[in-house]
Amino acid sequence: MxxxxxxxxxxxxxxxxxxxxxxxxxxxxxxLHENMARxxxxxERKGRLLDDPxxxxxxxxxxxxxxxxxxxxxxxxxxxxxxxxxxxxAYLDGERDDWIGALAAYYLECxxxxxxxxxxxxQVFFLLILRYPDxxxxxxxxxxxxxxxxxVRYESSALADADLTERGQxxxxxxxxxxxxxxxxxxxxxxxxxxxxxxxxxxxxAERRQYGGFIHLTGRQxxxxxxxxxxxxxxxxxxxxxxxxxxIVPEGPEAERAKRTLLTDAExxx
Length: 270
Hints:
It holds the Pfam family HVO_2248. The protein has helices at residues 3-9, 26-50, 57-80, 84-92, 99-117, 166-190, 192-197, 253-262; strands at 17-22, 124-132, 135-147, 152-155, 212-221, 224-231, 247-250, 263-268. The chain is α+β, with helices and mostly antiparallel strands. It has one domain. Helix 2 packs antiparallel against helix 3, helix 2 runs antiparallel to helix 6 and helix 4 (84-92) crosses helix 5 (99-117). The mean pLDDT is 86.
């Protein structure tokens, strides 16, 4: 059986679950800060690409997908080393039952699902990363429904109705470019929430960096894309026990609140 077939058999790895990673020292906090800074940099780059009329929207999303995949592959190597694929498959096959295998399987499925489902019509990509005093959590899933709340919407001229007249196509292209410009402005304004949620531990007091988080939603309905990027507050009472080892945990009340308040008719697919 191919590895993606095994992941299909264990599709519940992402469903209503998150990864919890301890932050035992400043070095771990610094690594988290640097990884979040890379995500923020990618958001800024996406804004620049959206604002470039010579860059197709498909290329914008391919660039973003590549960056997210690299981020998860980096985590895979951190957790399980260069042989992360074998570690994840051993966990999925029941040959090991430890936190390293569980996290490797979770992150590997993240990579696979991103490749399989990112920007699929009528599906919403959901990413929630939260910081607590002694740990952080990552929750990734895909849902049906529609993004509501303070989302920006923009069009892809490549997905325009083929029945449009030549003049109609020209107008639709112009409108699409304007909507992408508005989306670029939105991202430039919002991407700072990622940096604010995960500040540099060498330049910030311990009290200032105890709690933080952000949420990123992306969805598509036909030619219309919707995107939401915003700060999201962690629940101080989420965990009863301190973080001692990495592991898989329930998605938490913050994810439930996000799905309830930011999505309409949401249903978890993966």
